[in-house]
Amino acid sequence: MKDCTAWGGAIGRRELLRAGALTGFGLAIAQHRAFAQPPAIPAARGDIMPNVRALVERSVGPGRFPGIVASLGVPGREAQFVAMGRDGFTDLDEMTPDSLFRIYSMTKPVTGMATMMLIDEGKLGLDQPLSDILPKYAKMQVQVTPDGSITELRPAARPITIRHLLTHTSGMAYTVVQKGPIKTLMEDKGLIPGRITRMNVPNLLRGQPVRGLDKFADGMAEVPLVYDPGTKWSYSPGLDILGRVIEVVSGKTFDGFLRERLFDPLGMTSTFFRVPENEKGRLVSNFAVVAEALVPIDEGENSIFLEAPASPFGGSGLVCSPRDYDRFLRMLANYGTLHGTRVMSERAVRIGTSNLLPAGVDKSAMQGAGGEFGAGGRVGMGGEAGIYGWGGAAGTLGMVDMRNGLTSSLFVQFMPPDALPLLSEFQTALKADVTALPERRR
Fold first, then answer.
1. pTM of this structure
2. What are the tens digits of pLDDT across the range 172-221?
3. Which residues face 295 on adjacent strands?
4. Facing residues of 272 across strands?
5. Cα maximum dimension of the chain
6. Could you give the angle at which helices 422-435 and 50-59 cross, rounded to 10 degrees?
7. Out of 8, 60, 368, 409, which residue is the most buried by the measure of CB atoms under 10 Å away?
8. What is residue 305's DSSP assignment?
9. What's the CA gap between 317 and 310, in Å, rounded?
């Protein structure tokens, strides 16, 4: 394929938020008695996800998806995985729980929990002004008209805090959401926190990203806010800025901090900001949906993720295996421990998976059921420490049911993630499987 003109500009606000909103399937799981149940497929002995398995079987193959991995985990056991197909239509490597996927915004909960560790240790405050750590944010300006003029500005009503960055209530502009002159300004400055392909994709993102989280954070301090901090939920680069905050507070590189404090203790050996050359055979291909067909835009053997990124972006930068991400989710489900090793305090997990939104915030832009948000991910209705998780721009989903100790995920690679019905079909199948669990029938 020479270009993606038909797809250019298709990955916008609605699609990205839809990916995150679908993580709300956990709410349906936790409250399944309130819903009419789909016909369930009887489980074979030891199979706890027959309906998900049947969905994956009928969704993989010629004219469908090259491969899919899904998981469901219950307390006290390793997660069960369903993995079928290949890493790409022309890649004969078998899809497995150890295949590598671009998880995009599923990086945000990882960064959120890393931030909670520093808050728990007293090195950060949840309501601490960002300018305490990054002084360039001391006197922010706000657009008089959101997405309008970048010269008609007024002083921000209050400072940006760590809470605001964690919950997308900082008021910061985001190149994947904003339009008009403020989007152009960010692209001109190279404030592009993410990457998709080496291909020229018209109308998607232009410009070259600045290199280094320090330069990215300094540049964002010069961009007007779209909204006053703490007033409106609006998808943002807040978790990317937190990567720089973590560097300053910890004295370590952001990726080094994640490796030392999360990835190594959890055994997440297949999680990278840059896929090593000797691991590229495990990296699956990513596709764009064009007229309901899958067109390759970033093939595993020649992926842009084999290159060093401009920065280790905490909002979108990770490549991860389904098995690794389940380790992260199970640690949360166990309130900070995995296989007897404590990685986070119970207090940090409980706070991070609870509702952290500022009081009175406008949540109208948050799609889907629920409407609460924690440290980098959505949480259950009423702000309970219940369902926590988020989705990625290429069709991945991950969630943990804190009340019942369940974990679940879906790994596939296509953009935008609501162009095909797979994610909503997964929601229905997963709900049927969880409802049938012996643990849920007691």
1. 0.91
2. 999 999 999 999 999 999 999 989 998 876 555 577 899 999 999 999 99
3. 288
4. 319
5. 65
6. 160
7. 409
8. G
9. 10
